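We read letters as residues; the integers encode the fold. Take this protein.
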Amino acid sequence: MSHPRRQVAPHDVALALLSINPLPLLLAPATVPGLFFVWRNLMAQPKSTTPGQRPALRLVSTKSMNREEWLKIRKQGIGASDAAAAVGISPYQSPLELWMIKTGRDGLLPAPDPDDIQSPMYWGTLLEPKVAEAYARITGNKVRRVNAVLQHPDDDKPWMLANLDYAVVGNDDVQILECKTTGQYGAKLWADGVPEYIQCQVQHQLAVTGKQAADVAVLICGQELQIHRIERDEALIAHLYELEREFWQFVEANTPPDPDGSDSAGQALQALYPRDQGESVDLSANPAMEGDFNELLDLRNTLGRLNERESTLKQRIQQTMGLASKATFTEGSVTWKRSKDSTSLDTKALLQDQPGLLKQYPKHRAGSRRFLVRPNP
């Protein structure tokens, strides 16, 4: 059974700046216009816990747990880092891919290597303690590791889990520290403050723990540390409960959520259905699929006309530029430069001359399914 994707209405989030002024730090408010967050003034000083909510349950200790055991525990619910994907706002993971992981189908997906020195995951894990150390040194806040997977205390939310980076000790204004690292590409997402998918992650942590505020410390390009304060937002958390519960119902029913058009969803579909069986299915009696196919045909025709117009405009500018390398306009500029000559191996000619090399140095490349659209004449 499939359900339509629900959108979250914008809601306020209370923001506060740290009252410090270190030279190497840029302190900025956590605000991103978009799905979740807009400005509002602080109405009152935060309290350390939410009245009426019991403390989070310690589901299991992670102190001596290896990565495989930790990942297995995470499949029992929605963790804070899963929250944005579960509600459909993660730039990296679709609800469909997350569903595959939570239902034990992650073996069909490419497995990230935590020891790959070229991966952001490796450097994030390596630098996390340094970010926490710098945060504590600058702010004077004492932090400690939380070596446990936490669970929401309410009986109707056992699927809501959290694995905190650090707890802030002895401070009534802030109780959680979330550490992040980002490179040159990811830094663009922080240009206007904390990205909304990370704000979603932190609100999930606050929901599970009952705490009132968290600091997000992010190391950008290895040299700029930003610290952002995020306050608990009850209206937003209420929406998170609703949307995360809706996602978890897909998991419990073993029913995949709808794809969302992302690369992640496309890869998940290829993993779920890697090979066709040569059969043909008639969807002409399915009104929803008939509508989707007709819309697809219309969009492809529109895109074809737009691509043709784009090529025409580009060629007109190129013709006017002639031998010039750059042209400037009121709204921007274009460049038209020749790339450097290069030499590459002609493998086709090499194999024609020495066909035995293919057996000596084979390289397997897995096939994939191609989706081709053929309108009726």
Notes: The two ends are 34 Å apart (CA to CA). Residues 11-270 form a domain with the Lambda Exonuclease; Chain A fold (CATH 3.90.320.10). Confidence is low (pLDDT under 50) at residues 1-47. Residues 10 and 36 are 5 Å apart (CA to CA).
